[in-house]
Each structure stands twice: as C-alpha cells, then as structure tokens.
From TrEMBL, chains A, B:
The keyword DNA-binding applies. This is Transcriptional regulator. Residues 12-106 form the HTH arsR-type domain. GO terms for molecular function: DNA binding; DNA-binding transcription factor activity. Keywords: DNA-binding, Transcription, Transcription regulation. The keyword DNA-binding applies. It comes from the Bacteria. Signal peptide: none annotated. Transmembrane segments: none annotated.
Length: 121, 121
C-alpha cells in the first residue's frame, strides 16, 4: 500500500499583483524568452523536462521560477512532472497587446540573428 | 581667454546591436520606466536635470546610462546639460509596435495603481 504523495502547489501572484516591471524583468533573459516563445506556440502545457536549454538543470529551474513568480507562466505538478503554461489570459487582460508585441519582437530578432549567422545558441 | 571644453560624446549601441533582452531589462525598473514615459510624451529632448526622481543623483545617472547603453535613449551634451531623447525610430524599426505597447501597458498600470490609492510614489 502506497501513501499518496502530498499535494504540492506552487505560489503564483494573483492577477492584480502582476507588475509590468516584473514581467519585463522575467523576459529580459534569452533563456526565459526562449521558454516563453515555446509555451506561446504550444497548444497545451509543457513539462519542464521538454526544454533542452544550454544551461544546468538548477538554472533551468530558476528560470521557470522567475517566470512563475512574475506572473508570466503558471506551473503545476502532474504526477512527478512540472507542467508549464503561459498566463496569456491574465497578461492580455492587464496589458492588452503587449504579449503579442513581445513575441513578435522576439521572433523578429531571432530571425535577424539567425540570418546573420550569429545564431542564438 | 577660455579654452573650449573638450567635445564629449557618449557611447551608443548601433541599431543592429540593440537587443530585445537589453531593452526589456532597461524597462524593468520603475524609475527607468517613468523616465521613458516622460520622454515619450515630450516633444523635444529633455535634460536629466528636469527629472525629479525619488532617488539619488548618482542613481539617476545610472538609470539614464542603462537606458542609453541598451539603446532605448540617446544622450548628448548641450553645453553642460545632458539631453535625452527616446530612440523611437530605431526601436520601431527593430520591434514594430513594441514601444507603443509598452507605453500603453505602463500607462494602464500607473492608472490602476493610482486608482487603488497605492500610488507610484
């Protein structure tokens, strides 16, 4: 007989506690911007383990935490997997059009850097 | 007879060296966001001394430097005054629509925080 794992929930800011400065800080890192771009194109929540970032596992965990604590993403456990989703509805309600502008800007930059052969790693 | 002051110019990133991450980092601070909002509504360049921020003079100087080095503003000396202007043309060319989205988001947030009586200081 196994004991069910304790329910683990993660702290998220309520919508009205999300601050623009925190969102911009969260997106000011290339790895975090890459995570957000992936989540934006995914049709469902993605497990942390799906992201193959060129940084250590603990740094990856840190990046996801910064994104969650700023209100950019939601995280929840599903079994042993930590699942991630964009808080698009909250962000769009607070800052209409901003997330899409940021995603477009990130895509444009990625295209430019790639074309120049400098890449993004 | 006075010797003219040596011409002092300040380093600015070229347009193609401006990075989204740097711009977002520059705007992730409430004081820097406030500076940018003021410059966006001004019809001409503004002297640093016009900004009455609730931080020390050296911190103010630091904030302007971060904005310049990220490519968000241009700075030049006019006599002894350091004049500041938004690099709107460069930002709009690189990231169409982003600056306006950011300014709208900042204005919305300022309105919300003010209405709640929590203010922005």
């Amino acid at each position: 007989m196994t004991t069910p794992a304790p329910s683990r929930t993660l702290d998220h800011p309520r919508r009205d506690a999300i601050r623009l400065e925190g969102v911009l800080h969260a997106l000011s890192d290339p790895m975090r911007l890459r995570i957000v771009r992936s989540l934006a194109t995914a049709e469902e929540e993605l497990s942390c383990s799906l992201f193959d970032l060129p940084v250590s596992k603990s740094t990856t965990t840190h990046h996801f935490r910064v994104l969650r604590e700023s209100g950019v993403i939601s995280q929840c456990y599903r079994g042993t997997a930590k699942m991630n989703g964009l808080r698009r509805e909250d962000l769009d309600a607070l800052f209409p059009g901003l997330l899409d502008s940021l995603l477009r800007a990130a895509a444009l930059q990625a295209g430019r850097l790639h074309e120049d052969g400098r890449g993004e790693g």
